[in-house]
Structures
1.
Amino acid sequence: MNQLKNAVRDFCYLTMFLVSLTAVFWLTEHLFLFLNSCLLILLVAFITRHRREVWPILLVIFLLISIEFFIFIVLDEPMALFLVLSLFDLFIAFSIVHFHRDRSLLELCRVKPPVRQVPQVYLISLMLALSSLYSFLLGTEMVFYTLDKQIFNDVEPFFYSIYVPVKVTLKILFDLSICSLVLIPTRWKFLQKIEQRFDL
């Protein structure tokens, strides 16, 4: 009976994850995408309620994507927006890696010692680094396009032309990396390899 109950529960979780991950295809408003990310964070927080060492990471992600959403609303100029988002994605990646084990955060989330390692932070940071790189390339391209449109011979700039598929892919990978926080590192070899690679 317990096995059936666990199977049904896991199936429900998987369904919610899939709905959240595919939402990027049918949600066009940035506000709805932000709310979808918040709901995903809450779902992961609920599933990992017995592994509180994950919560500081989720808290940092929530706070920083909230600030990023505010930046997206305030900045109307695409060139400035892409360049600022590029720097901010790097800042988020740095903050997650270096502050997810901060003592005040651990106390706030009531994480009891010993604090177990969470190698998934490096997956999340990698996705943010890729997003930062693309935003930087896009912003730089927009600078040249603004200065002289003839540079591109009246052809749509390359990184701008692939904006939608790239951003959708990066968004899915980022959300997927957040979902990976529900995985217990000791049960997954690729997480153990990450842990060994960074000497956690």
Note: Residues 19 and 55 are 22 Å apart (CA to CA).
2.
Amino acid sequence: MNTGRHTSVRIRSQSGLRLSGGGRSGYSLITVMINMTILSSLLGTCGICLHTLFRLDHKERVTSQLLDNLRRMEQQLREDAGRGTINSDSGRWRIQGAVDGELIVWSESRGIVQREFTESGELSQRERYVFPAGTRVEFGDPVGGVAVVRIREGSFFVRYPEAGDGGAVRNKPEAVALPAAPAGVVKSGEIEIHLQDAVRADGGSA
């Protein structure tokens, strides 16, 4: 009789332990799932923040590159314009210096501007101004004593392939290196450098 009672008590106790342990296991699983959900949300938010920071850093680098080259090029253009006569030749500027034998040629290719200074037929200096990928530079024809350089920035809605120096890729077709902006988007910015009285209307030096 006594043995039967003790056995019954042990069975109830063990059953209670199993139920109690099972309850704790279910609660832990829910906690893990909640923690994983919170962690996933935090990682997603961090990813968005990092992506935004990278875009801002890229935009700041592009703006800095544009302004630095623009400042240097404008300073050199104004100096060269005072040396002689500006003539347009197939999209290039040829500045014949007042000193015999001096010739300065400004040319552009996919946002990369090149300046060559020649003395007595020999190349003396060569400089490059590398603008951000997507930039277009145009050396306009001098009209009415004014010579104008137009710098058109790339579209914010287009991701242009970049070379190692940040300029446009030169070994790809223009349609790939400088893709057109989507129709209907806001027109990209344009900067102009006016060299007033750099040349006279008759083509002579000012």
Note: The first helix runs from residue 2 to 81.
3.
Amino acid sequence: MPTDLDDGPPPYTVAMHINVRFVHVVTLAENMDAATQMVRSQIELFVNKARAEAEAAGIQMKCEYMVTY
């Protein structure tokens, strides 16, 4: 019977939630929607690279976008 000091046998599932904020000043855009799309495209490149590296390490990565102004 497991106690507080005994986690039982492996495997263990560990989940971590992180909050990452990207900020970029856009000077060459027609409007806020265009600026947002430009930044989102750049962020997606970073996220896709991170996702590929995570998968190579056996880590499942989920990403949810939240845009703030």
Note: The two ends are 51 Å apart (CA to CA).
4.
Amino acid sequence: MKAMAILIGLVGYTMAVKVMTILKMLKVDIEGWEQKDFEELLSDPRFLKYMR
């Protein structure tokens, strides 16, 4: 839930749900991630290609 709260604050609810879905599909463990980690992920061009 902490991850979802951080993502909602950064990108809004709809985009946060999309990001969480992608992370689950890619089997990325986000346990213990902080806001800085999510900001880096959202600016990574390799991850952005999945956000279409």
Note: Helices lie at 2-11, 13-25, 35-43, 45-48.
